[in-house]
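Researcher: Please translate sequence to structure tokens.
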Amino acid sequence: MRLDLRPSAVINYAENGALHYGIHIANNSSFKKIFVFGCSGTEKHHHIRPIFVTPRRYILLEEVENFENFNEENIEKYYHEQVLRETPEEEIELQTLMKKSSELNSMLRNYGQLGDSEKPLVVSAILLALNENLSIDYLTGDNIRTDGDKIHEFMCCNLDRIDVGDKRNAILHQFTLIKDRTKLNTIHAKLGETPLKYFTEFIKEEIFPSISSTRADILGYFYGEFIKYSGGDGQSLGIVLTPKHITELFCELAEVKPTDKILDPCCGTCGFLIAAMHHMFKQVSTEDEKTYIKQNNLHGIEIREDMFSIATTNMILRGDGKSNLILADFFDIPSEKLHEEKYTVGLMNPPYSQRADEVTAELSEIHFVKHLLDSLADGGRCVVIVPQSTMIGKNTDDKEIKKAILKDHTLEGVITLNPDTFYRVGTMPCAAVFTAHQPHPENKRCKFVNFEDDGYVVKKNTGLVETARAIERRKYLFKYWNDEEDNPPSKFMVKSKIKHDDEWLHAFYYFNDDIPTEESFKETMSEFINFEFEMILKDRDYLFKE
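Model: Translation complete:
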């Protein structure tokens, strides 16, 4: 690679200077692998270009915001990904998981003749039985005591051992297909064993070992894959499962502590509760403290019976012996009653686009937000992920709810997220942060952030994956969110007073005094037209109407 010494810009002077010294060090010292940095600009508006240098070559790397990737903890990962161009371990794990999901999905369909809503239930039932040390050899394909009966027996033992209380019958009711489905319990000619035994062997060898050892919501990933294979049924039901990096981000935004009592009123597969549990674990040292957290500090509500059973399974497999989940409609529980429980943190990803007309107006996302805020303890912290249109106010009713929220609660800020966060779903998300039961001060300046560039990118055949930039981008976000530094660039964060009929988004308050180029204007208009066309095709044209 040839060194370009043409002084075309100040930044090039900085980069060439850094490279000059890097080459000198590489050729005249014992250090043969070196990172150097060309830095220019001011503290607020700057360029930092890393360059990797060896005695024989150099590699010009992408610009960075800070030096977070180059500390002792992160530099090895950065080197392997950015310099050696190796596939990150997390991406390999995700690719492996997707492959296993695809294989298992095909097995469940081809050998079990299972519908899309039944597949994750069978997976959950087998996991519960394996958690009770079910032996594969115990499954013999008998006609008198079928493999389904035996799996169901071990499931019951597991539920009785951990004492799930009055939820036992509701959980078991969802799993009766294990016993009742003849196809699952008849020896398959090609397999030479029952499909249930075949599924159990696969899950025990390929999936079960990783369930309790990882921070990821494994069942959530699987459920997401099954929804993807179902031809979009999950989207029509408003099911949008939250990615792991978002659940972890929310724990930081809510400043979750081991003493907090968490509520997720639309808990799905319990992704938020699992993230909160691990976030708390990092702050304690004894097993007794961890046991207390699992049994007392994690609470969820789920309306769908099948999802409730999957969520309960997920928490049981994480060692949550008490499993504080409620099978109920969140709106059927008065906020006054929930307020008495003194939940200090609310985390939520509500069902999307459930409002179809005036009759179903109360199912809009902003109604979920208000009900959660009303339900939390005084001073409770609340973080929700919703479509950006929620913060705009899609109609007059939603705008009135926004007004009611400010009357009783405080909006701390809204973070516009990566448009690919829910890859292939077509939702433009944002995260809103509130403080419950503290009326919004008239002169308060809320934080509005553009965090679309979060260091996650879409890769073909994999989906949304983390890059080395994700670490520094999150560090950059919290540097300004936590007011560690003043005067953030306005293109990243704007602080502003608000009114209820404002659009609570960075784009509404941000004023760009730079004149856009013609190319930039055309690109932006093209993106908007494509987005509008996509939303119209999905019957979401209400986004563009009053």
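Researcher: Any highlights?
Model: Confidence is low (pLDDT under 50) at residues 1-11, 230-238.
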